[in-house]
Every structure is written in C-alpha cells, then in structure tokens.
Amino acid sequence: MRDVIRAATAVAALSLLVGLGRLAPAALEAQDQAAATPAPHANDDCMMCHSDPETTRADGTSLGVDAAKFEASVHGQLGMACVDCHADVATAELPHAEKLARVDCSTCHADASAAFAKSIHFEAREHGKGEAATCVSCHGMHDILPSSDPASRTYALNLPNTCGSCHGNDTLITRTNMQGGNVASQYADSIHGRALKAGLIVAPSCSACHGAHDILASTDPEGKVFRFNQVATCGTCHEGIKHQFDKGRHGQLLAAQDDRAPVCADCHSAHGIQAADTPQWRVDVIRECGTCHVEKLTTYRDTFHGQVTNLGFARVATCADCHGAHAVLPQSDPASPTHPTNRVAMCQQCHAGANENFAQYDPHADLHDRSRNAPLYYTARFMGVLLIGVFTFFGVHTTLWFQRAWREAAASRTPRQTLPAESVLPPPPHAGDEEPKGGER
Ligand code: HEC
Ligand code: HEC
Ligand code: HEC
Ligand code: HEC
Ligand code: HEC
Ligand code: HEC
Ligand code: HEC
Ligand code: HEC
Ligand code: HEC
Ligand code: HEC
Ligand code: HEC
Fold it and tell me: Whose CA is nearest to atom 10 of ligand 2?
C-alpha cells in the first residue's frame, strides 16, 4: 500500500515537474511564440532508430536501447519520456546532433546528487580520474530499478558485485592505483561477505559501512570508516560490543581522540573479517596487540602460553583470554579480570584446579626487571653467570686440549715430510714396516 501511495505521489510530482518544465517558458513568453515551439519528441520518435540493437556509433559502440528493459525500469514504469532525461534533444530536429549533452540526474534527484558531489568518487573525477563511479556505474542507464528490488544493482545482496566491478577488477585497480587493492575479493571471503551471499540481509554490504552517495576516503575525518568514526559505524549493528569497547581503556582513549588507541579494523581487519573463534585469527591478533604492547608481547612469549601460541595453537591463553577483548582495563580497576581479586577466577576458566598460589604465577615475568620480580631476576642473573662460567671454563679447556693435540699430530707427521717423493704413491703392502721410523725420533 505504501508503495502504491509512493508511486502515485511520485507520478504526480513527476507530471508537475515535467509540466512546469513545459509550461514555464510558455508562461514567460508570448502565447504566439509558445505556439511555434514544437512538441517534445515522443519515445517512438527516438526508438525509430534506437530500438535496433545494431545501431552503433562510428566507433562501433552500441546505441541500441532495449525497449522492454526501459519499460520495466522505475523510470519507464512512471511513464517517463526519453527526453525527460535527454532534455537537450526534446525539441531538436531529427536526426539530432552527433554529440549530445550528458544526462543530468540532479534535476530530479537533488538530494542524491548533492551527497554524491561531496564524495571521493566525484572528487576523483574532478581531478581527472575518469574511472571513478558515477550515477550510471552504480545504477545503470535505462534499466534502473528501485534499490529494494532484488534485481537492482544497488540491492544489498548485489552491491558487492556492483562496487566490485571496479574494486574487484585487478587491471583497473593496478592502473588507477586504487587504495586497498582487491577489496571485493577480501570481502567475499569474510564472515560478512559469506553471510550476505547466503542471503542474510542484515549482514553489512559495502554501503552499510561506507554509505552510498557520500562515500569518502578512509583518511577523511568526515568519513564513516575514518579511525574515530569506525566504532560508531560497526556499532550500528554490533551495539553490545560497542558498549563494551567504550567502557574499556582503549575506548576511553579513543573518546579522547588519542590516535594511539586501536579501532575495530586494527584487530579484525576491515574487509577480511573472520569469525572470532577462527584459530588462525586468534593467534594473529596476539601479534596485533604486540604492535602496541611490544614489551608485554616479549614477556608473554617467554611463557608457556606464549610459546604454544607462537607455534600456531590457540588452545592456550591468548592476550584476550586473560584481558578480555573489548573492555580491556588496567589491573588496578576492580572490573578487570587481571585485578588481584579476579585473577584466580580468570585462571580457572581453563585451569580448573587453580588456586591463589597458582595465580601468583607471573604471566609477564621479565628477567631484566629487578623491581618486578627479584627472585626471577637474580635467578636469571645467576644462571647467566653460571652459563658464562661454564662456557669460559670449557672454552679454555678445549683450547689447551686442541693445542696439545695439534702439537702431537705435528710431531707424528714430521718424519713423513722427509720421505722421498715416490712415497706419496699409495703405500706398499708392507707400509706398516715404516712405522718404527717415526718411533725412532
Ligand atoms: C534518425 C535516427 C535517430 C533518431 C530518430 C534518434 N537518434 Fe539518437 N542517435 C542516432 C545516431 C546515428 C547516433 C550516433 C551519433 C554518432 O555518434 O555518430 C545517435 C546518438 C544518440 C545518443 C548518444 C549521443 C552521444 O553523445 O554519444 C543519444 C543519447 C541519443 N542518440 C538519444 C536520442 C533520443 C533521446 C532520440 C529521440 C529524441 C533520438 N536519439 C533519436 C540516430 C538517431
Ligand atoms: C532516467 C533517465 C534516462 C531516460 C528516461 C532515458 N535515458 Fe538514455 N541515457 C541515460 C543515461 C544516463 C545515459 C548515459 C550517457 C549519459 O550519461 O548521458 C543514456 C544514454 C543513451 C544513449 C547512448 C547509449 C550509450 O550506451 O551510451 C542512447 C542512444 C539513449 N540513451 C537513448 C535513449 C532513449 C531512446 C530513451 C527512451 C526510450 C532514453 N534514452 C531514455 C538516461 C536516460
Ligand atoms: C557508488 C555507487 C553509487 C553511486 C555513484 C550513486 N548511487 Fe544512488 N544509490 C546507491 C545505493 C547503494 C543506493 C541504495 C540505498 C543505500 O544503500 O543507501 C542508492 C540509492 C539511490 C536512490 C534511492 C534512494 C535515495 O537516496 O533517494 C536514488 C534516487 C539514487 N541512488 C540516485 C543516484 C543519483 C542521481 C546518483 C548520481 C548523482 C547516484 N545515485 C549515484 C549507489 C550509488
Ligand atoms: C525527470 C526526472 C528524473 C530524472 C531526470 C531521473 N529520475 Fe530517477 N526517478 C524519478 C522519479 C520520479 C522516481 C520515482 C521516485 C521514487 O520512487 O522515489 C525515480 C526513481 C529513481 C530511482 C529509484 C529510487 C528508489 O526508490 O530506490 C533511482 C535509483 C533513480 N531514479 C536513479 C536515477 C538516475 C541515476 C538518474 C540519472 C541517470 C535519474 N534517476 C534521472 C525521476 C527522475
Ligand atoms: C564491515 C564494514 C565494511 C564493509 C562491509 C566494507 N568496508 Fe570498505 N572499509 C571499511 C573500513 C573500516 C575501512 C578503512 C580501512 C582501514 O582503516 O584499515 C574501509 C576501507 C575501504 C577502502 C579504502 C581502502 C583502504 O585500505 O583505505 C575501499 C576502496 C573500500 N573500503 C571499499 C569497499 C567495498 C567495495 C566494499 C564492498 C565489497 C566494502 N568496502 C565493504 C569497512 C567496510
Ligand atoms: C566505476 C568504478 C567504481 C565503482 C562502481 C565504485 N568505485 Fe569506489 N572508487 C573508484 C575509483 C577509481 C576510486 C579511486 C579514487 C581516488 O583514488 O582518488 C574509488 C574510491 C573509493 C573509496 C575511497 C578509497 C580511499 O582512498 O580511501 C571508497 C571507500 C570506495 N571507492 C568505495 C566504493 C563503494 C562502497 C562502491 C559501491 C557502492 C564503489 N566504491 C563503487 C571506482 C569505483
Ligand atoms: C584490541 C583488539 C580488538 C579491537 C580493537 C576490537 N576487537 Fe573485536 N574481538 C577481538 C578479539 C581478540 C575477539 C575474540 C574474543 C574472544 O575470543 O573471546 C573479538 C571478538 C569480536 C566479536 C565476536 C563476538 C565476541 O564477543 O566474541 C565481534 C562481533 C567483534 N569482536 C566486533 C568488534 C567491533 C565491532 C569492534 C569495534 C567497536 C571490535 N571488535 C574491536 C579483538 C578486538
Ligand atoms: C549492517 C550490520 C553490520 C555492520 C555495520 C557490521 N557488522 Fe559485523 N556482523 C554482522 C552480522 C549480521 C554478523 C554475523 C554473520 C554470521 O554470523 O554469519 C557479523 C559478524 C561479525 C564478526 C564475527 C562474529 C563472530 O561471532 O565470530 C565480527 C568479528 C564482526 N562482525 C566485526 C565487525 C566489524 C569490525 C565491523 C565494522 C568494521 C562490523 N562487524 C560491521 C553485522 C554487521
Ligand atoms: C593500536 C595500538 C594498540 C593495540 C593494537 C592494542 N592496544 Fe592495548 N592499549 C593501547 C594504549 C595506547 C593503551 C593505554 C596505555 C596507557 O595508558 O599508557 C592501552 C591499554 C591497554 C590495557 C590497560 C593497561 C593500561 O596501561 O592502561 C590493556 C590491558 C591492554 N591495552 C591490552 C590490550 C590487548 C589484550 C590487546 C589486543 C587484544 C591490545 N591491548 C591491543 C594501545 C593498543
Ligand atoms: C595468562 C594470562 C595473561 C596473558 C595470556 C596475557 N596477560 Fe597481560 N597481564 C596479565 C595479568 C595478570 C596482568 C597484571 C599483572 C602484571 O602486570 O603482572 C597483566 C598485565 C598486562 C598489561 C599491563 C596492564 C596494567 O594493568 O598495568 C598489559 C598492557 C598487558 N598485560 C597486555 C598483554 C598482552 C598484549 C598480552 C598478549 C601478548 C597479554 N597481556 C597476555 C595476564 C595475562
Ligand atoms: C584460555 C585458557 C587458559 C587461561 C585463561 C589460562 N591458561 Fe594457563 N594454560 C592453558 C593451557 C591449555 C595450558 C597447557 C597445559 C595444560 O594442558 O594444562 C596452560 C599452561 C599453563 C602453565 C604451564 C603448564 C602448567 O600447567 O604448569 C602455567 C604456569 C599456566 N598455564 C598458568 C596460568 C595462569 C597463572 C593463568 C591465569 C593468570 C592461566 N594460566 C590462564 C590455558 C589457559
């Protein structure tokens, strides 16, 4: 019912618009002059030539218009005339000029056009990058359908292919040096892309994160995927996570516009997002925490947990298992799992028998930090000294041993050097007879 009303309103608006367009000059100019203005061409006038798919330009590009598709399009359904869009030939003499003006959609779609005029695509075109998207690249020309129509290029389930006609086109990507590379294929392999492909309409298509007409570069502070806006953008669907994240230390930093803070895509990536229980990703994200918490990663790697995850097994504790993933807090915060009162429970998630004593184990023990763990520091020092001592002793021992062995070997070789040249030949069967000669010395 709403659609019918909408369509009816649209038709009324359209007739008014078209009517105004036709009446305005008539009202302004004298009646007799208006009478001399020829009537605008009907669609049939145009289709006389353009219904033939064989009609081509001099350069071979097609000029055929599929009448059935146009009839079925949103504009065709509204009974629009060719000349409503191709306004410059409305009353022109036929055959018309070779070059015609570009269709200006903004005469009827002011809002969409105004939003588009601020986008990266529009800007790129202004700067001579003619490969960037226009209305036609995303909507088509004569077969435009409402975005709610499952056959439309801009229907959520079809949009990745529409954007992907450029952002998934390797030749174009290389030629125009497009940011992000083959974004469409990364997206297709992500949990979002797979969910959307399976028909889960609430999964985000490109426009859910980027917008449609007002798409901006990821470095633009006004854009939906700019660092400081990302949490809000993902949070439109992942509201619970956003809530958690905002409460944590990272979220607080971000709210203070501190650009040291991580945002969703730093840990999850933007287009290759995997399910959070994917083992490979769980191991990779440790490295991501470590890009900022360098020293904590080093100390973690020294522990059993860190060594096992380094081998690619996610079964043992990762950073997020102990700290939480989104509401990370300093240990001084009573809500933190690392707060002394919560630590036993935290270890018990996996070590069922863990007690106060077990939880004393330092997950970030630092051999080089005396103030943090004196016994460990001195043990490490002692082990270091012991190791150096042992190596030094055996080093000296080996050197002396070698010298002696060398001297003895040299001594046993000397007599052979005085032998005549023929003795270089393979030893005669009784070579052993020469042995006492050496012994004589
Ligand atoms: C007598 C045949 C004929 C009729 C009638 C005709 N056209 Fe064309 N049209 C052509 C030819 C031929 C070209 C190719 C011009 C060229 O590039 O050589 C063309 C090109 C065009 C183009 C592309 C222009 C460009 O800049 O590339 C548009 C748009 C167009 N026609 C629209 C219309 C509309 C709208 C009508 C009805 C008002 C119409 N034509 C009627 C023959 C016709
Ligand atoms: C909703 C607006 C709209 C309507 C209505 C419309 N066109 Fe077009 N037409 C376009 C756009 C957009 C282009 C692409 C070129 C441009 O941007 O000017 C185009 C291009 C063309 C071309 C050039 C073909 C090409 O591939 O470049 C022809 C020929 C043409 N139109 C004929 C027609 C005819 C005949 C009708 C009526 C049956 C018609 N158009 C109705 C928007 C429209
Ligand atoms: C980069 C792709 C893209 C470009 C370029 C684009 N659109 Fe859209 N458009 C969309 C998508 C996607 C939707 C569906 C609504 C949404 O997802 O927000 C849409 C929706 C629309 C709608 C219906 C909803 C609304 O906002 O009123 C109109 C009308 C429209 N576009 C017109 C235009 C016009 C006119 C232009 C050129 C100035 C244009 N679009 C350029 C992708 C695009
Ligand atoms: C002469 C006026 C006029 C022109 C020019 C025009 N349109 Fe439309 N268009 C309409 C009307 C009226 C509707 C129906 C309004 C509605 O459903 O919201 C419509 C509907 C649409 C829709 C579907 C909106 C929806 O609900 O999803 C899209 C997309 C669209 N137009 C894109 C374009 C594009 C792209 C161009 C330029 C190539 C264009 N239009 C040129 C009048 C026009
Ligand atoms: C879940 C949200 C989301 C979806 C869905 C999404 N993007 Fe993105 N996109 C982002 C974020 C976030 C960034 C910023 C990247 C960053 O900061 O690392 C981005 C960046 C980009 C960039 C710039 C590349 C760069 O590295 O800066 C392009 C191009 C892009 N996206 C295109 C697309 C296309 C095309 C689709 C659909 C196939 C899509 N995106 C789907 C969130 C999304
Ligand atoms: C006709 C080809 C084309 C289509 C279709 C297209 N784009 Fe683009 N897009 C480009 C080009 C070319 C650029 C590069 C602009 C530049 O480098 O200045 C770009 C830039 C972008 C950027 C900014 C990248 C950056 O620098 O951070 C984003 C985001 C983006 N597109 C998203 C989309 C989305 C989402 C869609 C679909 C709704 C889409 N594009 C459809 C060609 C296209
Ligand atoms: C500092 C890294 C990091 C940041 C930033 C981050 N996440 Fe996560 N996220 C994780 C980790 C690690 C997990 C896995 C948690 C687990 O296994 O319990 C996760 C899990 C998830 C899940 C799966 C559900 C769940 O709770 O297990 C979703 C959805 C999610 N994150 C969305 C987001 C969104 C949205 C943002 C931005 C507001 C975000 N993440 C920011 C690291 C991060
Ligand atoms: C339009 C809504 C929407 C937006 C926006 C959105 N997501 Fe999602 N996301 C979903 C849905 C729906 C799923 C579940 C897909 C499934 O389970 O098949 C999901 C799944 C996820 C998962 C996997 C959760 C799990 O259980 O393992 C992560 C991680 C995630 N999203 C992160 C993000 C990030 C990061 C952003 C922003 C860059 C984002 N999402 C933006 C709807 C959204
Ligand atoms: C992009 C950099 C970045 C990434 C990635 C990152 N963090 Fe942080 N994190 C910070 C900053 C900056 C602080 C605040 C440090 C401060 O206050 O001096 C912080 C604070 C913390 C705190 C609170 C401790 C404190 O000193 O306030 C914990 C716990 C924490 N992060 C754990 C993690 C975990 C676990 C991960 C991975 C899942 C992670 N972080 C990923 C930058 C990052
Ligand atoms: C087995 C559990 C466990 C694992 C795994 C773990 N941590 Fe910790 N982490 C703790 C505990 C407990 C503390 C607080 C006590 C301390 O500082 O010794 C802590 C302290 C921290 C702090 C300082 C926070 C503060 O409150 O001052 C940061 C930052 C941190 N860890 C980051 C990480 C990162 C990054 C990883 C992964 C590379 C990681 N942690 C792995 C348990 C763990
Ligand atoms: C996500 C699960 C998980 C959490 C949380 C966790 N661990 Fe572990 N940890 C393991 C697994 C699995 C092993 C491998 C040994 C095993 O099977 O018992 C292990 C091994 C260990 C080891 C070496 C082997 C042993 O059993 O003596 C120590 C020490 C240890 N964990 C301490 C802790 C402490 C202390 C905490 C709490 C601060 C903690 N772990 C939290 C999973 C976890």
Answer: 141
CB 219 within 8 A of CB 299: no
Sequence letter at residue 100:
L
80 lines ligand 1 (CB under 6 A): no
Residue 262 has pLDDT above 90, yes or no: yes
Atom 35 of ligand 4: nearest residue by CA position: 135
Q: What is the pTM of this model?
A: 0.89
Residue 2 lies in a domain: no
* Amino acid present at 231: V
CB atoms within 10 A of CB 320: 16
Phi, psi values for residue 207, rounded to 5°: -75, -20
| Span 256-263, average pLDDT | 95
Q: Are residues 269 and 340 in the same domain?
A: no
| Domains held by the chain: number | 4
- Domain interval for residue 263: 216-273
* Contact indicator for 370, 377 with CB cutoff of 8 Å: yes
Residue 62 per-residue DSSP state: B
pLDDT digits (tens, 9 = 90+) for 404-434: 999 998 888 765 554 554 545 555 555 444 4
